[in-house]
Specification:
It is built from 12 helices and 18 strands. The protein is of the alpha+beta class.
């Protein structure tokens, strides 16, 4: 018996014997069914094997036909273009050579390459270098790349020159900027005014405003401490330094100065932070002037030399004159103003001085000091202490001082500077009053109306008077009283 897929197929002789078995017999029907099923599966298997052999022969014939076609396609070169040169292994062509053939390497060498001789053989780099590309007739080779060699640490600025020009701000050298403070009858700041509410006059002529803003400005502030006051006043001010530091914003820059008989710079301009705190802490231990009477006696006193209390020249007059003390407020303002003139013009420049306002024996006069302040657009704000803090005393001192060139002593000159520069003077009797004035003064300096116009004045030492008027008579306007055109060229 042969086993095919689990069925028993009888031999041919057995099948013949099975034909004689009756059809209606149950056993006969089983044997005949198995024989027919075996023949069907055998035929299917033979057909499947024949189909696989025929498919393999067809694939082989198709592959043999495609190989010559592929080889023939690879032998056809690409068409030349302006950006792709001819390959170096082109088949010989019957076309005539170009009128200006490219010189070969066997001729004269390039200008920057020595000829190849026995003494100067070809280097390995020349042997391994790629052959020069050949271009189609009439097609120019692409231009060489422009390579710029930048020295170490340098950088080319040609790429960003066009973009930088777009963001470059140009300022008119004849532009005059006038900060203006507007308050009502009770001393409160007035907001909401427009440019049409203001009128600016220069030497009596009305100017056309080309700039107006109410935005706050970052400040460059020079703080000046008068340590020539009475010691009780100096110690009162020293206790308010924490409030002074808190009155500045993170965008402000501050410098510190002290003065008495001379001017000293305690700290250069820097943002509010540890440096300012350290500088203020160092000033807490500074003492003021002794409140006792001046010393007018001694062997070498003003009355002349004495021996055992008896004058050597009895006939000489005895004149007792207390020594003069220097209180160089003008020199302190000049030192701070010169440093402020070097700061960024986009900031509002302010001198904030804490003093009793006394001036004596400065090298700079009032006129010269005011000229420097107005030429650089610097505003002076002050806190008056001691006697100058008496109500109404500062108003009396706003009277104009004769423009003297000699070094003379003024009683209280601080209100004159604040009035002329558009600032304000605050009074502080107590510690709390002084701390309150810090925030008020710096807040007013930062938040003002800012007007601008173009003047036709040329840079000179001639003083130009400015007057700012407002349409509402019930409001008080505070602005600088003029300027010097010499500052426009800065």
């Amino acid at each position: 018996m042969h086993e095919i897929v689990g069925f028993s197929i009888p031999k041919e002789s057995s099948c013949r014997q099975a034909e004689s078995v009756p059809v209606d017999s149950a056993m006969g029907r089983t044997v005949v069914g198995k024989a027919v099923t075996g023949k069907v599966f055998k035929a299917l298997a033979e057909a499947l094997v024949g189909f696989c052999l025929a498919s393999g022969m067809a694939v082989a014939q198709q592959t043999e036909q495609q190989q010559p076609e592929k080889k023939q396609k690879e032998d056809i070169p690409d068409a030349p273009s302006a950006s792709r040169p001819f390959p170096g292994n082109l088949p010989p062509s019957s076309a005539p050579p170009p009128s200006n053939p490219r010189p070969s390497n066997s001729g004269n060498p390039p200008p920057n390459q020595a000829p190849r001789t026995e003494a100067n053989p070809a280097s390995p780099a020349d042997a391994n270098s790629l052959p020069e590309p050949t271009y189609a007739p009439g097609v120019a080779p692409p231009p060489p790349m422009k390579v710029t060699t930048v020295p170490a640490g340098g950088a080319t600025e040609q790429g960003g020159a066009a973009n930088e020009e777009l963001f470059r701000l140009r300022s008119n050298v004849n532009q005059v900027v006038v900060p203006v403070m507007v308050k009502d009858g009770s001393g409160r700041m007035v907001n909401g005014l427009l440019s049409r509410d203001f009128a600016v006059f220069e030497d009596g002529k009305k100017q056309n405003l080309n700039f107006f803003t109410t935005d706050p400005f970052a400040l460059s502030v020079a703080v000046i401490f008068d340590i020539g006051m009475a010691d009780v006043a100096v110690q009162k001010v020293n206790q308010t330094f924490s409030a002074l530091e808190g009155a500045f914003s993170q965008f402000d820059e501050v410098s510190l100065y002290t003065y008495s008989t001379s001017v000293s710079k305690a700290a250069d301009f820097a943002a509010v932070g540890k440096r300012l705190t350290a500088a203020l802490d160092s000033l807490r231990y500074v003492s003021g002037r002794n409140n006792g009477p001046p010393v007018t006696s001694g062997p070498l006193g003003p009355q002349g030399p004495t021996v055992n209390g008896v004058p050597i020249d009895p006939g000489s007059p005895r004149v007792v004159t207390p020594p003069k003390e220097s209180h160089v407020l003008n020199d302190a303002l000049v030192a701070a103003a010169l440093d402020l003139s070097k700061r960024d013009r986009s900031r509002r420049k302010v001198i904030f001085i804490i003093s009793d306002g006394r001036e004596s024996r400065s090298n700079a006069s009032y006129r010269d000091t005011l000229r420097i302040l107005l030429s650089n657009g610097i505003m002076v704000y002050g806190v008056a202490v001691e006697g100058s803090a008496i109500p109404g005393y500062g108003q009396l001192q706003k009277l104009h001082v004769p423009l003297l060139t000699s070094r003379v002593g003024y009683s209280d000159i601080l209100p004159k500077y604040t009035y002329a520069t558009g600032g304000e003077l605050f009074s502080g009797f107590s510690r709390d009053a002084i701390e309150t004035t810090y925030a008020s003064a710096l807040g007013e300096a930062r938040n003002q109306y800012t007007l601008g116009y173009v003047t036709h004045a040329t840079p000179s030492n001639t003083h130009r008077e400015i007057e700012v008027k407002i349409a509402r008579p019930d409001l008080k306007v505070t602005a600088k009283e003029g300027y010097y055109p010499i500052g426009l060229s800065r």
